[in-house]
Structures are given as C-alpha cells and as structure tokens.
Amino acid sequence: MKSEISNTNLKELIEQDFLPFVRKPARYIGGEINQIKKDLSKCELTVALCFPDIYEIAMSYTGLAIIYDCLNKMETVAAERVFAPWLEAEEILRNKKIPLFSLESKVALKNFDIVSFSLTNELCYTNVLNMLDLGGINLRSSQRSESEPLIIAGGGQTNCCEPVAEFFDLFLLGQGEEAIIELAELIKEQKKLGKTKKEILSLAAEKFEWTYVPSVYKHNGSRDTGYERRSAVVDGFSNANVPLAPIVPFVEAVHERISIEIMRGCPGRCRFCQASFCRRPISYRSVERIVEIAKACYKSTGFDTVSLLSLSTADYPQLEELTVKLHEYFADKYVGISLPSLRVDTQLKLLPKLVTSVRKGSITIAVEAASENLRKLINKPLKDEDLFAAVEAVYQAGWQKLKLYFMVGFPGETEEDIRQIVELANQLAKLRKDVCGQIGQINAAVSWLVPKPHTPFGWLGQKPKAYFQRAKQIILEEKIKLRANSIRFKFHNIESSVLESAMARGDKKLCDVVEYAFKSGAKFDLWSECFDYDLWKKAFEKFGLNLESAAEKQFAEDEILPWEHLGGPDKKYLLEHLKKAALSFKLSAFLWECEDRRDLLRF
After folding, report:
1. pTM, to two decimals
2. Angle formed by the axes of helices 179-192 and 62-72, nearest 10°
C-alpha cells in the first residue's frame, strides 16, 4: 500500500525551486514550536492530515490539532500536516512538477499510507480534489491502484458526504479522538498481515459502525440495506485527549489563541442547526480539567487569550466558576478570556463578574430572527425583553460595540419580519444612549438559510435566489429610511449559499458535478475572489441538473434521503419537530401538500 519513502531530492526541489518564489514561504516550511516530527522510515503507519484550505485557516481548526496529537502519541504511527497551497504556490508546484508535500518531513502526499481530510464545509470539495491531484493521486477510489494511499475523511460533513463519496475510501462519522486510534490500529495490523486495501476496508466497515465505506454500501432503493451507520462518541469527554502543547504558527492564524472545548453538544434544538441535532450526547469538561489545560497550553505557547469553545458556552453549568478561576490565574499575566456568542439570560447574570477578565472588543449575540414569533418557529426561545435587558447590561459593563447574527429564509417569514431586522438593530443601538449618552455601534451579519441534512428543515427547499436578493434590498432600504447610520450590515454571498444548499442535500450524482467543476477550474470556493457561480451552473448543466432547482428541492415525507444512512438523529424525531413548527404557524403547505412552492415564497 505504501511506496518507498525517499524525499532527499524532493527536499532540495522545495528549498531551491519552490520556497524562494512563493509570497509567504512560512506557510510551507514547517518546523514550528511544538511540531511533532518522527522518522517515517521507522513507523509502521504514516498519515497525512490534510485540511483543504490555506495554512492560516487550517492552523485555527481545533479538530485537526486534536487528531494530530492523538495519532502522534501512538508509538509506531506518524501524522504530518498537509494544507492547500494558495494560487501562486500551486502554479509553481505544477510548473516545476513538485508534488504536494507534508510540512514536517517534506514527503510527497502519495507516499503516505493514509491521506485523511477534514471536511468542514460543502464548498471545500474542489480543494480536496485539487490536493489529491497535486499529490499525484487518482481522484476516484475505483481508479486507484493498490500502491496508492487510503483516502479517508472526518469532520462535520461526513454525515452528509454522498456528493463526494466516490473520491474517498472511508469516512469516519462523529467524534474522532478514540475512533481514529482504533482505525489506525486496525489498518496497521492488517497491513502487517499483507491484506489488500479492499480487505482492510471491508473489515473496517464490518467492525466499526461509525465508518462509512462507499464501496461496501449498496443502495437498493429501500431502507432495508443493513448498513445504517452510527456516529462515534467519545467515552468520557472530560478526560478526552487534548494537545497540551499545540503548534505555534509561523504565520498569524485566523484564531491564534489557546482554544479549549469546554462542552460538546448543545441543549438547544434550533431547527436549522445541524450541529445541535448531530453532536450528541451533551457532555462537559470539569472546571479543574479546563484550568489545567489552559495552564499547560499557556506555558507551551505563550498565547495571550484563552478561548472557551462550544456550541453553546452559556449552557456550561459552571461557567461563572470557570471564568473566575481562569481570571485568578491569568489576570497578572495579561491573558484575556474570550467567550463566543452567549445566550442572553446567562450573559445578563455573568456580565458584572466577567467584565474584568473578558476582552471588551465586541459582544456577539446570535438573534437569528428579529421577531419573537419567528424565533418560536425555529425553536430559539429568546424574548425581546431579555434581549434588551442583556444589551443594556452590555453597555453598562463598558462595551461599545455589539455584533448581531441574523438569518433570512425561514419558512413562514414575511416582509415585515425582514424589515424588523433593521428596526431591532436600530433599537439596540439607541439603547446605549440611555446608558452613556452615545449611540452604540452595531455590526449585523445576515446569512441565508441553507436547509441542512439531519435537521427538521432538511426536507424543505431553500428559498429562490431572487428572494434573498429582494431581502437584501429591503434591509438596505429600511436602513436608509430609519437613518440607522450606526448599523453596519454584512451579507453572506447569496450565490455561495445557493451552491451550499445544492451540495448539502445532494446524492452521489453530484460526484460527477464536483469533479467536472474542479477540472474546469473551481477551487477555493469559500473565497469570494475565487468563487465562480457560472462555472458551477455549467457543471450542473453538464449532467442534466439545474443548480438552483437542486438548492430549492423539497423532499417528501416518505422519501429515502441521501443522508439517512449516515448517522444523525432518528428521522421520525426530526419530522415531529418539523410538524410542530408547521402546525403552530399553520404552515402545513410547507410540508408536502403544495405542488408549487414558489407561490408560497412570495412576499
């Protein structure tokens, strides 16, 4: 399965013909503080951990750092990092025929036993193919030889991975800390026995219910496949593996801080949120363990911020005690505590005590919908009176800026709901004047609903592109009308959201679309300067599909969904959530009784 590792010539090529000509060589040299480098020739299993984006993004992803640490703690296993080269670097690699290589040992991607990708977003898929191509690896699993690496993937997108299933040999579903070790042990042992890739994959599919091996799964048009998968769950999250000496990047990363996951899962059930339904069960790290991790990471990195990560940090039951203990240790070291978006009722209680330890750049509140009625529909219990009380407390505690997250495109949404986004933001800005005599500054981020698999809204199609364009116009017109100059709106790219919706709920037929788009030049689709919507439209048309129709596709209640065999919550449970939302707002037509949804989507 693995070819002979010989990289002396490759290192020379990289040093002489590549690094002197790229704009940011620090992205590609490796050798950072806390890097782990082993002698690959003495290891029984080598793994390339790939992230399909540039260094600065990849080094901010906590999941990659955890798996890197887990695998390298195994005595005879080595894991090295491989990230997507930026455009000018890729051009040099291709022109000089230098294969994509790892940061630690400068070994070509194709010379690893396993090439593993973190899949975090639907728009990273063409970068995956580009990295395989740069590494000299055949794109399709069915086309690879026995000497080529096993190509596997983990991350949030594995629970809805059919649009890229034909490019991977195996997907690891769910939480990876323990599962990746079990999988590595199995592959290592089977490799010693001389088993073929096909034999290893068949055994993994049979032994681990959290693996999805596309070549083994045969969809016969019914649900009785005998191959329903389950997501892996870490046993004892509080003591789960955490890197205590994370790598210190050479290039400033997007999030350069000590990042500690304090809880896993979310007690909330926002009906649009895939993570809140898929990341189960809810589990917590102890205060003592979190403080211990923070101290160790600070000593090994010197970072000046501790970020407490989770889907819903406000629901951590001992948040007040945790922040107090962290402040006691870090206050004289000028290390701040960063909290993500907090639920307003808890935030209101904690703010007076957190003011001395939490950095006061801006406070973020995920409002999602401006009206209480719409919040009830999406199952986000946030009352206006609590929101206003929390924001007032924010201003009284000394914050000047507020960041609000809104989403447009919910079922049952009206034009008035959209206008109310501006009205609500304007009221919250003016609230500061009552506290200190000056209007507050508000950054309002508006995104467009993308129906996600494994959520109650996964059956509903996305609203048409024109709907979002009109909504954006309404918001900007309302801002001018109210003279709300203290509010700065930032809108997510509408066309990116349309593609995301089409890819999110797609099936294996989209593998052809993704490959064609890549070969037509698509890459870095998450970057506005690279994203080409027309290219993607042509890729869909090439195979008799329509991009916008795919995004707006509505599934029937009894339809077999492309993702229902890939972990996630029970389908009946999700349908009950959807029906409750529909019945409470008399929106049954949004389910399966309407032949032409476009009439329902007009303002």
Report:
1. 0.93
2. 40
